[in-house]
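Quick one, tokens below. Sequence please?
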């Protein structure tokens, strides 16, 4: 099952808002430690055989048999010597801006759009930066594209995906891509090789990686967020059953909170890590775009609401969030009462959501195995076991 393009584009706007908000946290809330989970190192990189400050395993860089240590190519220490490095003065950072509220909306400029990139068309996939600062994204043909800071574009891996969504680099250098077109996660290695990591996902969308390289992915159609082992691809569902489609996801700077954006009600939700159990608490709504929080935003349980031109009342889902439940024919009746549906009669029964629903009357209701019955098409039959504790009317 796929979501329409209009919702996809809307979801990307919410993801952009989330990334802007989360990006502000490290400057003001970080303790100074840095965790690089997105593409710090590429394995077997052919285009960068040397880098500043590389040190050989035996400490001998120039091959003269003596142990040398070079830092950024600027200073050299002889083993056992007294040479001191001249430390560059640290630039003082004015932190006064941390005391001021963030002014939204922030201005932005388009880097990759739908139609302004010549004959190369881009959709609404995620993008990431590699260790060189180049943008890695995907075009409409499923090619992974590298865009340099000078604006030059080249195909890194041709036809890697059918429809790319979330992307993230592992600390070991592999790129993980959520391919909603084929319902799977893939790993792309620095040499362009591709491995299917986790198949059979239900519209994988948002993607992020924690400090231990575990992959977190949202499944929009299944309304779930799961954790994936980066080596085995084993999937563990953390939360499922949202009444909204989970879209983009992102961690807080200390990885203690996982945020995700709802594609349906313009809200950002948070899931806090449970320190004792190692999992995550149930999601809670953190923020919402004013005027776009859904038909029950700002209302109380039991209030009237309208969704898709259908009247209903605001009720709580399994996570305690309000949603607009359509009015039912059994709302003012008791369990066991008769009710009428559009084409047949029924009985009010308690549903899984805790509300009465009008269940069509079955030919063998109130009868025992072997009793005569009449099928739904009016033919004579006999009640027989359906193998699961119920009875059905078999035509005779």
């Amino acid at each position: 099952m796929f979501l329409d393009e209009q919702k996809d584009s809307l979801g990307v706007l919410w993801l952009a808002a989330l990334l802007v908000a989360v990006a502000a946290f490290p400057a003001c809330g970080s303790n100074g430690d840095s965790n690089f989970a997105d593409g710090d190192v590429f394995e077997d990189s052919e285009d960068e055989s040397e880098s500043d400050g590389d040190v050989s395993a035996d400490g001998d860089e120039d091959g003269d048999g003596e142990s040398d240590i070079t830092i950024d190519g600027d200073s050299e220490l002889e083993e056992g010597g007294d040479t001191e490095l001249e430390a560059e003065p640290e630039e003082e950072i004015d932190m006064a801006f941390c005391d001021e509220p963030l002014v939204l909306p922030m201005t932005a400029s388009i880097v990759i759009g739908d139609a302004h990139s010549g004959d190369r068309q881009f959709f609404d996939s995620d993008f990431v930066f590699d260790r060189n600062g180049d943008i890695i994204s995907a075009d409409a043909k499923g090619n992974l594209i590298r865009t340099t800071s000078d604006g030059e574009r080249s195909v890194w891996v041709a036809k890697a995906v059918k429809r790319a969504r979330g992307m993230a680099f592992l600390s070991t250098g592999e790129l993980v891509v959520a391919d909603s077109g084929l319902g799977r996660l893939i790993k792309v290695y620095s040499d362009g090789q591709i491995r299917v990591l986790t198949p059979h996902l239900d519209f994988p969308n948002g993607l992020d990686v924690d400090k231990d390289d575990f992959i977190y992915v949202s499944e929009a159609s299944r309304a779930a967020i799961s954790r994936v082992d980066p080596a085995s691809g084993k999937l563990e569902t953390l939360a499922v059953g949202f009444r909204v489609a989970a879209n983009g996801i992102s961690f807080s700077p200390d990885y203690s909170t996982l945020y995700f954006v709802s594609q349906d009600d313009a809200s950002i939700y948070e899931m806090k890590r449970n320190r004792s159990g190692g999992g995550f608490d149930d999601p809670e709504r953190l923020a919402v775009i004013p005027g776009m929080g859904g038909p029950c935003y700002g209302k109380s349980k039991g209030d009237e609401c309208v969704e898709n031109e259908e009247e209903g009342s605001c009720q709580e889902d399994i996570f305690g969030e309000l949603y607009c439940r359509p009015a039912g024919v059994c709302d003012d009746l008791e369990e066991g009462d008769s009710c009428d549906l559009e084409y047949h009669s029924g009985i009010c029964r308690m549903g899984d959501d805790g509300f009465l629903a009008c269940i069509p009357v079955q030919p063998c209701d109130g009868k025992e195995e072997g009793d005569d019955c009449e099928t739904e098409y009016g033919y004579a039959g006999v009640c027989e076991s359906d193998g699961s504790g119920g009875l059905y009317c078999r035509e005779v």
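Residues 5-23 form the longest helix (19 residues). The chain is about 5% helix and 35% strand.
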